[in-house]
Amino acid sequence: MKIDGRCHCGAITYEAEIDPAKVLVCHCTDCQALSGSAFRVAVPAEGDSFKLRSGEPKVYVKTTAESGNHRDQAFCPDCGSAIYASGAGGKPPLSIRVGTIRQRDQLIPGKQVWFRSAQRWLSDLDTVAKHEKG
Predict the structure, then answer these.
(1) Is this model's pTM higher than 0.85 or not?
(2) Which residue of 64, 67, 90, 93 has the lowest C-beta tally within 10 Å?
(3) d(CA 133, CA 122)
């Protein structure tokens, strides 16, 4: 599937090919801290299909908690939107942050990883009051 996306302010734009069956939710504590949320939703780019169309992300190199591997965390230096993660030095595999993908409403997660770190209240979200607007 061909996708395109952008950061919140529009300074960074990109396109890529993805397999929608590979969308996943990561519950690891690193993703919780880096996303500022309870989890992160991501999808790998197919091969070297990821192409920046505008802007240049800033990169933070994270040391993975359990393996000690390094992962580049790319984000917009202006608005802070997380764009992707990749191996050190931008090496594949490249994992795109679904929240920046324009077609995100079509991307349904098929897998959850690091579930041992998931927030306990996630299973109760159906019981939480819902409002159409703030």
Answers:
(1) yes
(2) 67
(3) 21
**H helix or E strand, kind and range, residue 49:** none
Rounded to an integer, what distance in angstroms lies between the CA atom of residue 82 and that of residue 6?
Answer: 10
- Residue keyed to tokens 């802007």: 55
Task: Give per-residue pLDDT as tens, 79-130.
Answer: 999 999 998 887 777 999 999 999 999 999 999 999 999 999 999 999 999 9
Which residue in this structure is represented by tokens 């159409």?
A: 132
pLDDT digits (tens, 9 = 90+) for 58-85: 999 998 767 788 999 999 999 999 999 9
Distance CA(77)–CA(75), nearest Å, equals 6
Domain extents in the chain = 2-120
Distance of CA 55 to the CA centre of its chain: 18
Strand-strand pairing, 24-26 and 40-44: antiparallel
CATH ID of 2-120, from 2.170.150.70, 3.40.50.740, 1.10.10.10, 3.40.50.720: 2.170.150.70
**Residues 3-34: pLDDT tens digits?**
999 999 999 999 999 999 999 999 999 999 99
